Amino acid sequence: MKMKTFLIIILSLGLLSSCGYKVLDKSSLANFNIIEFNSTGDNKINFFIKNKLRNKITNSKEENEIIIDLQTVKTKNIKDKNINNQITKYEITVVSTIEVNFINKNISKIIQVSSNGNYDVVSSQAKTINNQDNLEKFLAEKISEKILNKLIILINDL
After folding, report:
1. Are the C-beta atoms of 34 and 14 separated by less than 8 Å?
2. Between 125-157 and 43-56, two packed helices, what is the crossing angle to 10 degrees?
3. d(Cα 90, Cα 101) in Å, to the nearest integer?
4. Number of neighbours of residue 34 by Cβ within 10 angstroms
């Protein structure tokens, strides 16, 4: 009998006392509106970054209006070669410099974000190009998440 009450008490305490962890919805923290988005550099990666940011930020009623100038540089280097001196891996590094102009506050901030990754060279050129495209999309997504995090921090600091 004592064992049943002890188990009931332990289980009820476990259920009633939660850890308080709550998933953070970053879209509620993004209290700004992108008015203009200018980009230079690699058009493909800029397109992916621009779309990811616009999909995450859909606040047209916010008072913090910003203009974003995005400059992206992509470098592709040889990572590995085999014994026959044939390339087996490439490394892509994407560096984005973002100038954020806060219209209402006449403040300009510069953010620099970088990301890199590797992709394999396979026997079919189409698969190699597909590997490169997938890596570029992944890197653009990582960079857009980093940009969004830094923008939220900048807005909250002002």
Report:
1. no
2. 50
3. 36
4. 20
How does pLDDT run across 106-148, given as a tens digit for each residue?
Answer: 888 899 999 999 999 998 999 999 999 999 999 999 999 998 8
**How distant is the alpha carbon of residue 41 from its chain centre?**
18
Strands in 12-64 per DSSP E = 33-41
Provide the pLDDT for residue 141. 93
For every residue of 69-134, DSSP letters joined together read EEEEEEEEEEEEE-TTS-EEEEEEEEEEEEEEEETTTTEEEEEEEEEEEEEE--SSHHHHHHHHHH
The per-residue b/e assignment along 82-96, b for 16 or more CB within 10 angstroms, e otherwise, is eeeeeeeebebebbb
Pairing assessment for the beta strands 33-41 and 65-81 based on DSSP bridges: parallel
Q: How far apart are CA 51 and CA 55, in angstroms?
A: 6
CA distance 116 to 133: 13
The Cα–Cα gap between 137 and 44 comes to: 9
What are the distances in angstroms from CA 44 to CA 10, 50, 79, 98, 136? 56, 10, 22, 16, 8
